[in-house]
Fold ABC transporter permease.
Amino acid sequence: MSASTATRPAPAPARPGPAPRPWHSELRRGLAPWAGAAVLLTTALTMGSRAAEWQGDWGATHGLLRTTTMLVLGPLVAALGCRQGGRESRRGAGDLLRQAVRGRAARTSAALAPLVACVVAAQLLGTAGVYLATWPYSLGGGLTRGHGLLHAADAVLLAGLTATGFVVGRLVRWRGAPLLPSLACYALFAIPAYAGTPLTRLVPTQQPWPGDEVPALWLAPVLAVWTGGLAMAALIGHTARRKPLALAPLGAAVLAGALLVQTGDDAWRTDPRAERLVCDAGEPRICVTEAHRNLLAPSGEALAGLRQRLAGAPGLPERLVEQRPGHRVRRGSGEARLPLFTPLGHSVVRGGLTDEAVFAWEAAGALLAPDCPDPAGGELDEVVWTYLAPAHQRDLNDPAEALARAERSGRSEETAATRTALQRLDRLRDLPEDERAAWLGAYVSAAQRCDFAAQPTL
C-alpha cells in the first residue's frame, strides 16, 4: 500500500460543553423574570394610583405598602407559583420526569427557587422605590427598625405563598388551578379583618390605623416564622421522602401563631414622635407633632393673615395645636384645634397644603366653635369668621353674591339678616385698630368658654 493511500487518523472528538444550569435556563426562558416584572409593575401601579394618600407620610406609606403587598401581591404570586408548579402536567412530561435521575426535591428546587428569588427581589426593589418616592415630600418623623423588619417578614410571606401555590399546582391538574390559591389567599387576608376576634392577629395585614404606631422588634421575626413555617411544612410534605420532617416547621409555625394570638396589642405602641409637639414663635403659637414637623412652616404661612388680624387681641388661646393620639383639646385649656393634616389627600398632598385659604378658614372656625354643648355658636360668628378668613370665598366675602343667594331663597327675613350682617362686617372693619383688637379678644375668649351671652355686640 502506498503512502498516498494510507488512511489518516480520525479527528479527536469535540469536548462536550458544560451542561446548562437549571437556574440559567429558568432566568432566560422561564416564568421567573416575568413574575418579577409583574410584581414590580403591580406595586408601581397600585401605589402610584393612590400617591396623594401616602407620599410624605412615612407611616401612611408603610401601612399602604404592606396592605398592597398582602392583598394584591399575595394572590398574584400564589397564582404564579401555581402556574409554575403545573408546568409539568401541562406539557405532559410528568411520567418522563418521574423516571429522571434527579429526585423530586431537586426538580422542585430547580423550578421554584428562581421564581421565589425574582419575586422577593422585585418586592424589595418596589418597596425601596416607594420610599424613595415619599422621601422628597417628607412631613417629618421616619421609620424604625421594626418597620423595616416587617417588610423583610413580608418578603418571607411572598416566598411562602409562591411555594404554597407551587405545591397546589403540582397536586391539582387543572388549567384553572391558579385561581384556587389566589382566591384563597385574598379571602384569608381580607375577610378576618372584619371578624374582631383574637384570631385576626394571625393575619399579617393587621396593624393599627392611621399609621402612628411603632411595631415591636420581635413582631417581624414571629410573623416570618408563622407564615414561612406553614409554607415550609407544605413544601417539605410534598417533596421530602421522610414526610415527618414537615412537623418541625409546622410546630414552629404553631408556636409563633400562639404567641401572636396571646400578645394582644403589645406588638404595637404609640410613636413618641406622634405625641411630641414642635411649636413656632408666633402669636398664637402653632404647634404640630414631631412626625409632621415639616408642615410647621407652611402652616405658619397659611395662618399669617389670621395672626395679623388677631394681633393685640387679649384672651386668645395661647396655642393652635395639632390633635394627637390620646390627647383632646379641651376648652379653657389655652389651646385651640389646628385643622387636620391627615388622612393625606385632602388638606395635605405631597408634603404641602392644598388650599391655604381653606386651612385658615378652618383654623378660624376652631377659635369660634370649640367643643360646646350648644352647637349654634355666637350671633356674630359669620361676621367674625368672614373677617378673620377673608380669602376663603364663602358666606359674606362677596356681598353681591351673599345678597343674591339670600334673595333666591325667597324669604325676606333671610335677606334682611344678610344685609344686617354685611353692615356689621363693615362696622368691624372700620373700628380703630386698638378697639377692634379688644373687641375680637372679648368675642373669641367668650366663644372659647362657650359663654355666648358674654360676647360683645356690634
Notes: The longest helix spans residues 104-134. Strands lie at 213-215, 268-270, 277-279, 285-289, 319-321, 335-337, 348-349, 352-353. The chain has 17 helices and eight strands. The longest strand covers residues 285-289.
